[in-house]
């Protein structure tokens, strides 16, 4: 973010993702499903990095079981937003059940706009957003004060274990099936939640969706 170093938004989680990938390689972990680590550019300008990925790889999205976004600072993860899809909520509850000692966790089944889960959601792909304790995130949001000293390193280490475990849970449990939603199902999600209002509030993404420039066609 232009005003500061972006330590909590989102440098801490970029570093965490890189280190999770590094540790999986170091431990020679071989998941049953492919895990793809991605750092998206252009998020603050309009979610353009993840938009480009989903558009370019649209033909492969039916093979994507889950897209997880971690973008709300370094406070401890208290659960996940599961996108307004009961099937995702059920699957996430199952995976989280294996790591209750790192909780407590409460998963919230509502769709959110504003981070890089969005284009996956609008393409019908299962998606999660980590929900964090606010810690130092909100007071320093998009501010010059978002500096390294605000990062909660203890919680960040716990979060790395949570994210790694949830990622591996989805990758290794082949009984978890989250079929890609059709355009009709996505439109119903928009109608039955406040997604339309969220989309209209930012970055012109509602117009892009209606014009067929974004999401599943």
Automatic annotation (TrEMBL):
Record's keyword terms, sorted: Carboxypeptidase, Endoplasmic reticulum, Glycoprotein, Golgi apparatus, Hydrolase, Lysosome, Metal-binding, Metalloprotease, Protease, Secreted, Signal, Zinc, Zymogen
Compartments, as annotated in UniProt: Endoplasmic reticulum; Golgi apparatus; Lysosome; Secreted
PANTHER family: CARBOXYPEPTIDASE Q, PROTEASE FAMILY M28 PLASMA GLUTAMATE CARBOXYPEPTIDASE-RELATED
Gene3D superfamilies reported for this sequence: Zn peptidases (3.40.630.10)
Molecular function via GO: carboxypeptidase activity; metal ion binding; metallodipeptidase activity
Domain called Peptidase M28: residue spans: 3-166
Pfam families: Peptidase_M28
Protein name, as recorded: Carboxypeptidase Q
Phylogenetic lineage: unclassified sequences, metagenomes, ecological metagenomes
Listed GO CC annotations: endoplasmic reticulum; extracellular region; Golgi apparatus; lysosome
Keyword Iron recorded: no
Single Gene Ontology BP annotation: proteolysis
Subunit-level organization: Homodimer. The monomeric form is inactive while the homodimer is active.
